[in-house]
Amino acid sequence: MTSKSRKNITVKAFKARIQHHLNFHAVDLSHSIDKKAILMAVCSSVNEIVFDKLQSTNIRRHERNSRSINYLSLEYLMGRMLSNNLHNLQLFKTAQAATKELGFEIEDIFEEGHDLALGNGGLGRLAACYLDSLATLDYNAMGYGIHYEHGLFEQQFYNNRQIESPDEWREYGNPWEVCRPEAEQEIPLYGHVETVAETDGTLRKVWHPGQIIKGVPWDVPIVGYNCETVNVLRLWESRASSHFDWEAFNAGDYQDANSAQTQAETISKVLYPNDSTAAGKELRFIQQYFFCACSIKDIIRRYLKHHDDWSQFADKFVIQLNDTHPTIAILELMRLLLDEYRFSWDNAWQMCKQVFAYTNHTLLPEALEKWSVELFETILPRHLEILYRINEEFLNGQVDKMWPGDTAMRRKLSLIEEGQQKMVRMAHLSVITSFKVNGVAEIHSELVKQDLFPEFHKLYPNKLTNVTNGITPRRWLKACNPALSDLISKKVKGDWAKNLSLLSTLTDYAEDKKFQQQFMQVKRENKVKLSEEIKKLTGVSVNPDAIFDVQIKRLHEYKRQHLNLLHILALYRRLLENPRLDINPRVFIFGAKAAPGYYLAKEIIYAINCVAEKINNDARINDKLKVVFLPNYRVSLAEKIIPAADVSEQISTAGKEASGTGNMKLALNGAVTIGTLDGANIEIAEEVGDDNIFIFGKTVDEIKALNRQGYDPVSIYNSEPELKSIIDWLDSDYFTPGKFGELSAITQSLLNDGDHYKVLADFVSYSQAQEALDKAYKDQAGWAKMAIMNTAMMGKFTSDRSIEDYANNIWSLDKNLPATQAVKLASGE
Predict the structure, then answer these.
(1) Where is the PTM N6-(pyridoxal phosphate)lysine found along the chain (predicted)?
(2) Catalytic pick among 665, 698, 758, 785
(3) Is 536 a catalytic residue?
């Protein structure tokens, strides 16, 4: 079915499809139909089209034998898929009308769907955006990940504290996935390695595993926007290779009869199992190897299905490692080439160096993964042997050649970190092997060269590069903000959702009074909707005419939600001292989950909730200040918050945020950024102009200078009376009556533990920028211009541009276009 024939699907025809599928999903068609049944029927109707396109894509791909990008990521934060798929198929209005005739609002049907929350934050959401763009741009791509039974936990608040519960995202099945048992893989673990002498006198290694786990693939189709391509995200579920012991069951040992299955299924049970214990570390290590091994075996299976030898493997497949989580894939490909396919060492190593590329997402040392040698010895003994040889040849070859006799340099660059417990440096292995290593924003990529990997940059001067992150405008504007999308489409000629640079046309209307009014009316309508959602979720009533100030992201010290909290306390204190203080009413909106084992992050959530409870019930401040922490932040909730945001808080410590993508989503929807010169904030400022963003705080170089001089947060605390008063406030029982010091974990981190992320150093600058922002908002015409300029100048930050950068500068991909489009492209049309 072509795009033209899809556009010809009438409301009547689509309604008939839904009614047909209701036969399978509704219990009794003669009575009222359940919303879940209508959801499944609509999804099934859409899938008829999706899987037809998928088959056409596969046929075209096999005919063209085009180069494939294989994206390995431990996280995919996909969100709900129905709305996005309808928009990408150009069927949204058709489906909306068809469901209305059946007595349902399409938005209510969307609410019945579960988020595919198979990720933690920016890493997983970026991967989802990239899959969308790869399909939209007609590239031959396959995503690989884990089919978690439970995604990121559901978050609730009890007595203002975060409580985690399982995320049952597929409790009643997932309409967007299909099992592919024909592609299942067997994955070895544990055991020992034997050296075997061949008849020709050579030696080879044989790994005798102690356990075999089965990897079962589930495919989620990824629909490109307004094109003919559907790619696949393949997610691996772990199962026991022999999962039921009939002998034990018949002997009455019912529990042990199922133990192998239970143990195997644990691998794909939970996203990021708590690794604070030895058992947790082992599970997480196995989880990473399981997904990598399944994926590498599947890539080889796909290649050998169409090729008789290995001569074209590096020409046809490139493997992108999304952070260090998939690094074990390097060792697994080496193992298979050496042991299963009898490659020589040199040929296997050359092959690996030609197919892998690596994206670094962090400058934080604790986020660069290291695994103990002991874990490797126990679980992957053959991989450890391969690792040692890679390390030996690297140190004796490239390192000794560059720094002859330099023992310190050998120690620093070695894949093995010496110490009380020997550790394997996964980032080092990724850099040594990959033909390209990229950071994710211009400043981040420079800091990777200067601070993180300066020696590797000297060794490989052409290897380290940059690809600034991007977001898909299909989900993050067209689908989540339909009113603004419709307004934009009246002014912008062409398909801006596929060519985001077209939004620059809006600069012509930035000072047009009528357009300003229309733009801000859309914003207010979105704020009214969010106000209703806030009331439903928290019971707090907020004023849609107030400034909606939004900070939505993972809870981490470097993202500095507690800096935001200090400013809220300052405003609260000022209002108590002067209730007539001339400031705009402000609603501070937080959304964030803290990792279950991250104590201080959870204490920050607790503090924000305690402060919110006090402020929201204090009549003395005349509703000029409200604070809401929305529970269970996820993609579908972000889709409601982002269109309503006036202010985007991007306040990480300079040099700590690799890029950020929330900053792009918020700006695209007309929010004005207050932020540091960190990550992609710098590039956003370059695009929107200094007059349309509020920059504050110390730069990367100034932060480094503070560290060299010896940073003293206590001296700042003692020299800033307002800051001192609000920190002391946190130490009292004002926000936790009868519980003195209940919020002291924050003050402890800021004063006694050294304020590692320079919250106090940036507080005064942040407060001043907030005052400038408040003043700017009083000029509604001026603010409307700023908001419009932010939307207009986001063209650079589409994930389509990011993927084209990867495709042209790293992956060397050709588009997998249908024949008619390929002819037009070749002729210059």
Answers:
(1) 665
(2) 665
(3) no
